[in-house]
Design brief:
The chain is an alpha+beta fold. It folds into 3 domains: 95 residues, Beta Barrel (conserved putative lor/sdh protein from methanococcus maripaludis s2 fold); 81 residues, Elongation Factor Tu (Ef-tu), domain 3 (Beta Barrel), CATH 2.40.30; 118 residues. 36% of the residues lie in helices and 34% in strands. Helix 2 runs antiparallel to helix 3. The longest helix is centred in the N-terminal third of the chain and has 61 residues.
Length: 418
């Protein structure tokens, strides 16, 4: 008896045919995919950040940290070393010019002062003795001069008388010649005595002048030594507040050691550290702003310290609208230092995309917001909040600004929810 054989639905031939067709479809799809060159990745919109390009006012600024400081600070250094013997003021005290702060003890310096005073006294005594001796010598010379002049006058009288008598032949030539020789001798004696007196007088004056000069130098050295001893009492050089006091009773301080500082409290300034990257863009007159007590205050760069230390340099800023009430020395301020004026610009919020793209491209959303694709862009200036867009985007464009770390080389992002 014949049996009806049912025809199989999924024969080997049919399966191979369908597989071949599917393979052709996949091959065509792959060819199209490779031809278009667009690789896609599904992304959950809840895990990314989408920002809108806007046109608004823009100002380039950098955030810097500033410390409130007094307008001027005078450092107190030990002019002479010694042991701290007394403390007259404590750290934080307000002082007037000349007020004592501390006293150092230096026995060696005090001994040198005593020796210098003794030496000055010895020179003064020696100078007085020299002057007395010179005066006495002068008196002797004058007495001798008086005797010589008297002898000269007498010999001249006898000589003139004998000359008349000799001419009248009242006396002989021997007596006349004797009086003439005596007269000439007295003349020479007077001249020699006068010359000796003049030389002694000049020598005495020179000696006394040298003694005066030596005494003056020793007096100056003594005054300097006394000032050094006086400097053992450290005093306030100006009116101000004593800060950073570093001295304790019995502590030894070497010459030049820092003892503290006096802050002139007539006003305040702000000193800020800035990255050396901006050193060519910072100049006096730049303005900054900080917030304190829900109010914004203005600052202006007054001085630039161009020395770079650990990759940073410093600037001093002054308050332009008055010092805020209640501000204190050492207070930290967060300053927005402007590098440009406010202008209108296309703005894009900052985000992690910059780390992978360097600001050269970004994922831009299509109008439906379902796909984000790569577009080339050009960025300009920036501040901590925004980038300035120069090319590639227009106002209203939506872009992905979060990190692209996990996207690799994907050309498009398909946006949706998981």
């Amino acid at each position: 008896m014949d049996r009806t054989i049912k025809k199989k639905t999924w024969t080997s031939k049919r399966i191979l045919t369908i597989a071949g067709i599917a393979g052709v479809i996949i091959l065509c799809g792959s060819s199209y995919y490779l031809a278009t060159g667009k690789s896609r990745l599904n992304v959950d919109t809840e895990k990314i950040t989408i920002a809108t390009v806007t046109k608004n006012s823009f100002q380039e600024f950098i955030p810097v940290n500033g410390i409130v400081m007094p307008l001027s600070t005078i450092y107190l250094d030990a002019s002479e070393g010694g042991r701290v013997e007394k403390l007259y003021a404590e750290d934080g005290a307000f002082l007037k010019k000349g007020d004592p702060i501390l006293q150092l003890a230096n026995p060696d310096l005090e001994l040198r002062l005593a020796n210098q005073e003794t030496a000055v006294f010895d020179v003064l005594t020696q100078m007085q003795n020299t002057r007395n001796n010179s005066d006495q010598n002068t008196i002797r010379q004058l007495n001798q001069m008086a005797e010589v002049e008297n002898g000269l006058a007498e010999s001249e009288r006898i000589y003139k008388l004998n000359k008349l008598l000799y001419e009248s032949q009242a006396i002989g030539s021997q007596e006349f010649r004797s009086s003439e020789n005596n007269y000439k001798y007295q003349v020479k004696r007077r001249n020699l005595t006068r010359e000796t007196l003049n030389k002694d007088s000049v020598s005495g004056r020179q000696q006394i002048s040298q003694m005066h000069q030596s005494y003056g130098r020793m007096q100056n050295a003594l005054m300097l030594m006394r000032r050094k001893v006086e400097d053992l009492i450290v005093r306030a050089p100006v009116n101000g507040q004593l800060t950073s006091m570093d001295a304790e009773i019995g502590q030894l301080k070497s010459t030049g050691a820092r003892l503290g500082q006096i802050d002139v409290v007539s006003g305040f300034k702000v000193r800020a550290d800035i990255d050396e990257h901006y050193i060519s863009r910072i100049f006096t007159g730049l303005t900054g702003e900080f917030d304190l007590g829900n109010k914004a205050y203005k600052l202006r760069v007054k001085k630039i310290y161009t020395q770079v230390t650990n990759g940073r340099f410093q600037v001093d800023l002054e308050f332009t609208d008055g010092v805020p009430a209640g501000i204190r020395r050492g207070q930290s301020l967060q300053i927005r230092l402007a590098l440009s004026d406010e202008t209108q610009a296309l703005l894009l919020s900052k985000g992690g995309f910059y780390q992978q793209t360097g600001g050269n491209w970004i994922y831009k959303l299509n109008e439906a917001g379902t796909v984000a694709y790569k577009v080339d862009i050009q960025l300009g200036r920036q501040n901590p909040d925004y980038y300035e867009i120069l090319q590639g985007l227009k106002p209203g464009d939506k872009v992905v600004t979060s990190s692209y770390e996990n996207y690799g080389d994907m050309q498009e992002l398909v946006l949706g929810k998981e």
